[in-house]
Amino acid sequence: MMKKLIPTVCILALGIASPVFAAEKEEAKKVAKKQKPRIEVCFVLDTTGSMGGLIAGAKEKIWSMANEMISAKPTPEIRIGLIGYRDKTDAYVTKVYQLSNDIDDIYGKLMAFQAQGGGDTPESVNQALNEAVTKMEWSKSRDVLKVIFLVGDAPPHMDYKQDVKYPDSCKLAMKKDIIVNTIQCGSMGSTTP
């Protein structure tokens, strides 16, 4: 009788414990998801003609940086946005691609950027940076790392009266917990210390 009772008690105990273990496992998944780092990054790229000899390398570097973030451990939830910029008289001043977790789509858009236009040395850096801060659909959460990388070879037009100047955009970025980094391409005299 005792021999029959022990397996029955064990089976009963397993039946009761299984839902408890399943619930604990589900709770552990929720905790792991909560602890997963979240990153939002916007790459703002100068696509003017002066970037002609530099844009391929710039795009390669941008994608290398994106891949470093994507493959970080623990694996983050990541959204990437892009802004290509030129100048007022070009085919476009900015091309804005919203933050997205569709990495393949963002890669295609990045690779499609071509260096054309510009003409004068200063470019619409002010407008591009301001749009990165104000037009991207950034998370409101303080738990998300929010970063802008401004990549280019030319200084901003400070003579465009209607532009929000970069110091003001940087202050606004700070209020929104967005980190702004710059990456210089080339060695244009007006952009080097």
UniProtKB/TrEMBL annotation:
Pfam families: VWA_4. CDD domains: vWFA. Its main location: secreted. The keyword Iron does not apply. SUPFAM superfamilies: vWA-like. One of its GO terms (molecular function) is protein serine/threonine kinase activity. One of its GO terms (cellular component) is cytoplasm. Residues 40-193 form the VWFA domain. It is found in: Secreted. This is VWFA domain-containing protein. It comes from marine metagenome.
